[in-house]
Design brief:
The complex is a heterodimer of chains A (140) and B (207). Chain A has 140 residues and is mostly helical. Chain A contains 6 helices and 2 strands, in the order βααβαααα. Chain A starts with 10 loop residues before the first strand and ends with a helix. The relative contact order of chain A is 0.20. In chain B, strands 6-5-4-7 form a 4-stranded mixed beta sheet, sandwiched between helices. Chain B is elongated and about 65 Å long. Classes of the chains: A mainly alpha (140), B alpha+beta (207).
C-alpha cells in the first residue's frame, strides 16, 4: 500500500505488513543496542541508548500499525505516545515506557554529554518491554 | 478452531471481526478503517455489521461529518466477553508457554510455527510446534514421550485442532543449519517462541 499521510499530517496509514517490518527493525536495533551496551566505555552509553530509542520508536510504530492502522510520523514523540495509549489492553503502560525512553533521545543522539550508565540500563530495559509489547500486539 | 480467526468459534460472522478490531483500541475508527483492520469483510459488510452492533448498544457511533466514528462500548454488559475473544490467540500462547514450563524434562527450545503462527490457516489446520529435545534424552525416553503426548492432547482439547509436533534432537541442529531444509525457512520466518532458548539464538542468526 502507499504510505499515505492522514489528514492531520501527524500520522501515516499503515497495515499488518508494515507492522511486521517495523517489529523486525525494532528487534534488530535492540539486538545491536544490547551488543553496544556490553562494551565498557562512556561512548557506548550514548550509542546504546540512541539505538534503544530507535528500537522503541520502531516498536511503537509496529504496535500502532497493527492495532490502529496508523502510526505517528512527526518528530514530536508525544504524538507517538498518544497513539500507543489508544491500544487496548496494555497501551497505557507502553506509552508511559515510551515517554521515559523518548526523554533520553536528544541527550543520546545529539548531546555533548554522556548518558549515565543507569539511564542506559533503563533505556534497554524499557525498550525490551516495548518490543515485547509490540510482539504481543502482533500475535493477537 | 479456525487458526486465522480464533474468535470465530464463538462469533463467526463479520460482527466478530469488527468487534475484535474495536476491542483493540480506544481510538474512534471510521467504518473504512475498521474494514481495513478486520481480518475479513468488505467495507459494505463491515458497515452493516457496525449498524447492527450500534443497534445492540455494544458499539457507539459518533458523527464526524462526513464520516461516522465507532468505538466499543466498554460499559456494555457484553464488552468483557468481546475483550476476552479479542485475546484468544494470546490465551493459546499463554497456555502453551505455561504447559512447556511445567515439563520435568524442559525442551531446549519450543516454538509455534506454520499457519497458526502466521494466523493464515483455517479450521482444519494443524497447530505446528517445533520442539528441541535435549542432547542426552533419547527419542524413546518415556517421560519425554508422555510430555509430547500431553501437549498434543491439550492442544486438541483447547482448540479442536491436532498438534503437529516436530520432535527434533539438539545434536542434529548443526546438520539442519547446514542442510537448510524448507522447514528451517518457515521457522525463521514465522516462529513464535514458547519455551527455552529463543529461536534466533538457537539458530545463530536473526530472522
Amino acid at each position: 500500500m502507499s504510505r499515505r499521510a492522514t489528514k492531520d499530517h501527524r500520522s501515516r496509514l499503515c497495515d499488518a505488513a508494515d507492522a511486521r517490518k517495523r517489529l523486525a527493525d525494532a528487534e534488530k536495533y535492540l539486538e545491536v543496542a544490547e551488543l553496544v551496551a556490553s562494551e565498557d566505555s562512556l561512548e557506548s552509553h550514548n550509542v546504546a541508548t540512541g539505538l534503544a530509542v530507535l528500537a522503541g520508536i520502531a516498536a511503537a510504530d509496529a504496535a500502532c500499525c497493527k492495532a490502529l492502522g496508523e502510526s505517528s510520523r512527526g518528530p514530536d514523540h508525544r504524538d507517538a505516545a498518544a497513539f500507543l495509549r489508544r491500544i487496548t489492553p496494555g497501551g497505557e503502560a507502553a506509552a508511559n515506557n515510551f515517554e521515559r525512553l523518548a526523554g533520553l533521545k536528544d541527550k543520546a543522539h545529539y548531546s555533548f554529554l554522556n548518558v549515565s550508565g543507569q539511564d542506559r540500563t533503563g533505556a534497554i530495559r524499557r525498550t525490551s518491554q516495548l518490543v515485547d509489547f509490540a510482539r504481543e500486539v502482533l500475535q493477537r | 478452531m479456525n487458526v486465522s480467526r480464533a474468535y470465530s468459534a464463538v462469533a463467526p460472522t463479520v460482527e466478530g471481526d469488527v468487534l475484535v478490531v474495536l476491542a483493540g483500541t480506544t481510538q474512534p475508527l471510521t467504518g473504512r478503517r475498521v474494514a481495513r483492520l478486520a481480518r475479513r469483510g468488505s467495507v459494505a459488510a463491515v458497515a452493516k455489521a457496525l449498524d447492527r452492533l450500534v443497534s445492540q448498544g455494544l458499539v457507539l457511533r459518533q458523527e464526524a461529518p462526513p464520516a461516522s466514528l465507532y468505538t466499543l462500548n466498554h460499559r456494555h454488559i457484553a464488552a468483557p466477553t468481546v475483550e476476552t475473544l479479542a485475546l484468544i490467540r494470546t490465551e493459546l500462547l499463554d497456555r502453551l508457554r505455561h504447559a512447556f514450563s511445567s515439563w520435568s524434562i524442559p525442551p531446549v527450545h519450543a516454538s509455534l510455527f506454520g499457519s497458526t503462527a502466521r494466523a493464515d490457516g483455517d479450521l482444519d489446520s494443524d497447530i505446528d510446534m517445533f520442539v528441541v529435545r535435549p542432547a542426552g534424552v533419547d527419542a524413546e525416553d518415556a517421560t519425554w514421550g508422555e510430555q509430547l503426548q500431553d501437549i498434543s492432547d491439550a492442544v486438541l482439547a483447547w482448540t479442536g485442532n491436532h498438534a503437529g509436533v516436530i520432535d527434533f534432537a539438539e545434536q542434529d541442529l548443526g546438520r539442519m543449519r547446514d542442510q537448510d531444509p524448507p522447514v528451517l525457512g518457515a521457522l525463521r520466518r514465522d516462529a513464535i517462541d514458547l519455551a527455552g532458548i529463543p529461536l534466533d539464538e538457537l539458530l545463530g542468526r536473526t530472522r
